Amino acid sequence: MSVNQRNQRIGFKFDFIIIFYIKVWGILKIMSINMLMEIETRKLFDRLPKNRVGEADVRYVYELMEKGFSNSDKSGIVGRFEEAFARKYGVDYAISFNSGTATMHACLMAAGIGPGDEVIIPALTMASTAFVVLQCYAVPVFADVTPDTLTIDVEDIKRKITPFTKAIIPVSIYGLSPDMDAIMKIAKEYGLVVIEDNAQCYLGYYKDRLVGTIGHAASFSFQGSKHMTTSGEGGMVITNDEAYAAKIRKAGVLGYSAIGARPGSTCIPRDVRQDWEFKRHDGFGYNYRMPSICAALGLGQLERLDDLVAARQAIAALYDDIVASCEWLIPQLVPQGYIHSYFAYTCRLDTELVDFDFRAFRSKFIELGGDGLYGAWCPVHLEPVFKNMNFFGNAMRAPNFHELYKGKVRSYQEGDCPVLEKIQPTLFQFKTGYTSWEKALEQAEVLKRTIEAFNKQTATILQLNVKNACNC
Ligand SMILES: Cc1ncc(COP(=O)(O)O)c(C=O)c1O
């Protein structure tokens, strides 16, 4: 062996040892990062109260009980909750409501939406988003969604704008923000009000902004399935616009004249309200106030909101790891710079690659120990109430036939939002709201086994197909 050959061999060995150590070091590093993450995740879940009622929630409720009830909120707890919520989002005003539906209705009323107006909303949402438009006796106009993000399709918004459009309600579906820059640009161009429906999105980010701080106002729901709850029902609106905030509050508090935008300003000063000459109502409104006991719970829940969101994100990450190696499940696309808050983890079944459907997958998932699996809501425009336009007794009494309405939306039918109509039966929503990490790990394992079972089945079918093709 020549000197050169020997040196080459030594060099080769040396390279090999270096590469080996780098690889081992890399593996150890990944292992230790994973272990640290696992420890942190376990700590996170250990902090979460298993029944969703924490020590702080109980403390605030107890404080309220000790003070007792009267005509006014002696503890000021509603105002404290509003102030704390506004601080969390870094906005000037937060106004509490008794539901996320009431919030949006009040926002539309405060924006002056009424007969003759159109409001654009995505067809993939909870019916409430559309109902609040009808509650203003205005016309809901449904925009399609994009098949990857599942959020409202900006191009379809543009197509559906008319001289009668007055507002847009973009929805952060499953916890993911729509393309808010594009929506705000359209809104500016056409002078539209934007009310973000963030019932399903807490502490999500759109680029570098908190979802909820971009539109003219944003609505949140504290209904029982949401990241945080105020005992099953509740809602909050946030905005930076003082005049708009005051109108929103008024719309939810029976139009009382002495009501302002500030937190807790739901009580009229005694000297004013006790005077015989006092005229109480200079506006029209509903009684949508949040009960103080709900605010007490909300104040407690808000203190651990970061944990509540992080827990759902951790569970979504488990599913994501599994779905990443599955060819036929396509997770909801999270565009660069967005942070998803994962109210639910949603995937689309690529029906071109498989010969089974949602129902077969769901049955198998449950058979293997899965805790249920939701399909997506029916596109709202195809719900019977919209197809029959059965809003106020009979179709002819719908806002679409009001004498002030000059637009063209006279019916709701198949073909209005073709993208959603096609993909809706193929959407799978996995639950992210577990308060136990063990339960989440178990569910992720069931998902893995369900995918494996269908992978085998799909492979057998492919083999059979190939065999049949050869026999021919
Ligand atoms: C997207 C969306 N919008 C609106 C709502 C209505 O909120 P609430 O049930 O608090 O009235 C919900 C709640 O389920 C929702 O998921």
Main traits of this protein?
472 residues; alpha/beta; Aspartate Aminotransferase, domain 2; 7-stranded mixed beta sheet; 4-stranded antiparallel beta sheet; 15 helices; 44% helix; globular; binds pyridoxal-5'-phosphate
Descriptive notes:
This protein has 472 residues and is α/β, with parallel strands linked by helices. Among the domains are: 1-47; 55-304, Aspartate Aminotransferase, domain 2 (3-Layer(aba) Sandwich), CATH 3.40.640.10. The protein is 44% helix and 12% strand. It contains 15 helices and 14 strands. The protein has helices at residues 3-47, 55-67, 77-89, 100-110, 127-135, 154-160, 180-190, 242-252, 270-273, 292-303, 305-323, 358-367, 384-387, 418-423, 437-471, and strands spanning 93-97, 118-122, 139-143, 165-168, 193-197, 205-206, 209-210, 217-221, 235-239, 329-331, 338-339, 344-349, 374-375, 427-431. The strands form three sheets. It has a seven-stranded mixed sheet, sandwiched between helices. The longest helix has 45 residues, at 3-47. The N and C termini lie far apart (60 Å). The chain binds pyridoxal-5'-phosphate.
CATH topology of the domain at 55-304: Aspartate Aminotransferase, domain 2
Span of the ends, CA to CA: 60 Å
Beta-strand portion reads: 5-15%
Topology as a string of helices (H) and strands (E): HHHEHEHEHEHEEEEEHHHHEEEHEHHEH
The count of β-strands is: 14
Which parts are unreliable, with pLDDT below 50 for 5 consecutive residues or more? none
Task: Give me the secondary-structure category.
Answer: alpha/beta
Helix-residue proportion: 40-55%
Q: Spell out the CATH superfamily of the domain at 55-304.
A: Type I PLP-dependent aspartate aminotransferase-like (Major domain)
Strand order of the largest sheet: 1-9-8-5-4-2-3
Q: Identify the CATH class of the domain at 55-304.
A: Alpha Beta
Bound molecules: pyridoxal-5'-phosphate
| Cα gyration radius (Å) | 27 Å
Shape: globular
* CATH hierarchy: architecture of the domain at 55-304: 3-Layer(aba) Sandwich
